[in-house]
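Please, structure for the following, as tokens.
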Amino acid sequence: MTQYPNMMKNTMYRVLMCAICLLTVTACKKDGKPSDDTAKLTLDQYYAKRGDLCLYVGKFPVDISPRDLNPSIMEIMNDGLPAQLSALENAGLVGRSSMNVSAGGNFGAQMSVVRFTVTDLGNKFFGTKPREAYAMGGWIDVNRPEFCYGKFVLDKVESITEIEGKDSKRTAEVKYVVRTDNVAGWASNKKIQDAFPEVKSVLKSATVEVTKTLTPVNGDWKVEN
């Protein structure tokens, strides 16, 4: 009879240890590497919010010196601000008007400018929202008023690799491909592509390969920026 309590204790101890081991393995599996479906869902949600393809030329209205719009100067500076505004005008996204504005100082002097404003058509594509921009072969976060002409969407996940992140936390490196979607017709305008070389570059390649780190947060996976 004296052995029975000891047997019960041993049995309960083994059950407890098994439970701890199972929980440990499950936690490691959960925090170490997401499934393909989980990675796809996480990236789909990420690009739904941050996948816009946009152009920035400044805050409107934008005033330009008439001299800077001289065709001979614009031929040399064919991707500068005057050329960009002219290209947007050609696409119907902005309009121009001539006016006099204060030159500053205490004498009330005036100067002539060409003022560009967003048209009704342009307002369908113009706005401010946080997004991730693809520029110079890399990705940056921006939050500024821009003309958006399409989106990057997830095309396919190529690989998921478990890695050791900060503070020895297990995360995942995901290599995947994005493609352009819902591209506005004006983005194919030759003047737009000449003035904004990044548009031509993005639309020239059907897809772009990207590598991101996914981090476990409160039971879900998030893209690490």
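The first strand starts at residue 52 and ends at 55. Residues 76 and 153 are 36 Å apart (CA to CA).
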